[in-house]
Every structure is written in C-alpha cells, then in structure tokens.
Amino acid sequence: MEDVGSAVARVGAVWLALVFALIVLPSALGVSLGISEAYMWVLMKTLEWATIGIEKGVKKPQPQMPKTPAANGIIQRDETPMEKEIARLHRANFEFSDIFYFCRKGFEAIVEDEVTQRFSSQELVSWNLLTRTNVNFHYVSLRLTVVWVIGVIVRYCFLLPLRFTLATIGITSMIVGATMVGQLPNSSMKNYLSELVHLTCSRILVRALSGTIHYHNKENKPQKGGICVANHTSPIDAIILTNDGCYAMVGQVHGGLMGVIQRATVKACPHVWFERSEIKDRHLVTKRLREHVADKSKLPILIFPEGTCINNTSVMMFKKGSFEIGGTIYPVAIKYDPQFGDAFWNSSKYSIVSYLLRIMTSWAIVCNVWYMPPMVRKEGEDAVQFANRVRSAIAHQGGLTELPWDGGLKRAKVKDTFKEEQQKNYSKMLVRNGSVGSLSTRAESD
Question: pTM for the whole thing?
C-alpha cells in the first residue's frame, strides 16, 4: 500500500513539475512555447476532416434553405413600420382591419420571438465533435465515431485534469498574492504589484481554458480614469480582458469561493463591490463610481451594461446608469468562435459549476477582442441616447445583431411601458390622420 502511495506521489510531483515548467512559468512571463499554437493547428485539421466526412457521409441531399432573412430563423419577418403597414390595409381612417397588423405581430412573437432565442446556445453550422444533440449530426461512419470517442477521452481524461490544475494554481495565486499585496501601504509600488498579480493570474486562468485570444487596435485600450464597457456573453469575459490589461471590477458581493476572491482582490485593487441592498440605490452606486472615475490614478472601470449574458449573437439594451457617471467611455467588442466551444452561460439552465465543467471539457476558447476609439457624451445627448450610440458601435464592430430589448427579460415579464408605447404610437397615428376627430363627430351625430 505504501508503494502505491509513493508511486502516486511521484506521478503527482512529475505532473506538477511539467505543468509549472511548460505552462505556468511561460504564462507568468507572457511567453509562448508554441504548444497552444500546435494544439490549435491539430484541432483545426481534425474539425475540417470531420466536416468533410459528414458532408460525404450524408447520402440524402439536404434541402437548400431559401436565401432570405428567414434562413436564420423559423419565419420571415416584415420590418415595415406600423404606419406604413396599416396604410396598406386602407386609405381612410380607423377600420377594424387594423387589428390584422397586431395579430400578425403577436403570432410572430409566439412562433419565434427576438428575445428568448438570445438566451439559448448559438446553433452551429457544422459539428465540432462536442455534442450529438443537433438533429443534423447523426451517425455517419465508424471512423468519425472512433474520432469522437477519442475526443471524449482526451477532453475528460487529459484536458480536464490539466485545466483543473491550472485553474487551482491561478485562483490560489490570485488569493494569496492579492492578500499579501493588500497588506502594503498605498503607494505606486503597491499599485504595480497589484497589477502584476492580476495580470499574471489572469494569464494562467486563460491557459486553463486553452484560450486563444486575438486583440485588435491596442492603441485604443482603456486608460486610467476611464470606463470600459463591453458586451456580455460569459463570466470569463472579465478574464479575457484582464489577460491584456488590469481593470477595476464592478459587481455584487458574492459568497463562497467567489466571495473569498472578491475580499482578497479588493484589498490590493480598487474594485467596486456592492451589497444587494446598495445596488437597489442607484444614486449611491452612481456616487461611488463617480468618485472612482474622478481619481485619474485608478484603473479604468470595467462594466457590462447589459446586466446579463447574451448568446454571442446579439447586443441587447445597455442600462443607462453606466453612462450617467460622466467621463470617457472606452467601448470593447467581444466575439467568441463557437466552433471550438460554447462560451455562453445560460444561468437560468446551468449552475456555475455545470457551466465551468462544460467550458473545461470543450476544445478551446477562441475569441476576438476589438478595442474601439473612446467616446464621450455629446452636447444635448441624454444617457439613453449615449448608451444606444455606444451599443450600436459595439454591435457593428463585433458583427452582432442590435436589439432594443432589456436583457432582464430572461427572468422577468415584459414591462407595461413597452405595451403602452405601442398603444401611444397607434393613437398618435390616428390623431395625425384625423380618425379620432371623425369618430367623435360620428358619436355626437348618433
């Protein structure tokens, strides 16, 4: 029994030594030994071979989808404005045929609304050897099945233990390093060591995800005293960004392991954590953020204005609170490649533990990050208009669909104000056409 224990200890020691020498140390120094590049090359070739095998293995020709906007969904929508749509139905004033417009819009929302589908995983064009849940990915050949089985073994028996080891090293280093730096008096040395700890640990955590990140336009990176806003797909968005620079995080106070990390890092870095009771007080939140931005020596604040994770296809409504603070906004667009792994976190379906297991058993996390030119609030522009302008810029840069809906609809019902807005628009149209006056005249004559 002792021989078995000593053998396990030796294997563990060799494993940790290799991990430190080949991954952790190069990560801390910001150096690549070419292992990730070689891994991605093999992975790309394998996925290309699998795609070709699927195309050859399918005997029945697949029906071609019409080249219309409906190819991306179940139905084809008509985006004609309300007034023009109703004008087609009649040329006079109010008629009962007006309800056809609202009925059609209602049926469209029932069959396929624009919001719900943004909270489910993005559909893949080709199989990535990770799942068989898609109806298009049936049994094709024995060779492809064998490759899939080998992939399962590699992901769960090699990549998962390796990534778990790296994640443990990264999180432990973050907690210990931030706690030690937090004991130092406030000085430029403390700030330097804090940024070094955050940057080094973030690089290790990115390696734990087999992350391949392409940063574009680095000359536009957020500067101290500014506010960095980005679209939100996953909790790892923050790690993706801090891999290339340090930020002051903004968020709620959590419990468990996340709470331990928050309490340790806030001692070394000016993060802004709020209690749940404080988050309800928007004025208090805005005050604390303004105090942070006013100090130009502090790190830029990182905020995800959507307030929830969206499935890497769209950008939803930005909450205006982030744009009432003042200062310079540095927009950042993040776009993941779903071919190698689904980074989206459906928090209403998966717990954080289940999500991390899915991430750590995927092939890799590949994404592009675009730093965009800084933006400031124009004269006469309110916070909502400024937020919409920033959102449009991020959506255009990332190739994402821009939606006006609140991401809070993931868990809440549609607000009555949205319904009232449609009613007001229809009423204004009737007033312009004179329908209201004619109806009142008819009522008086009767």
Answer: 0.76
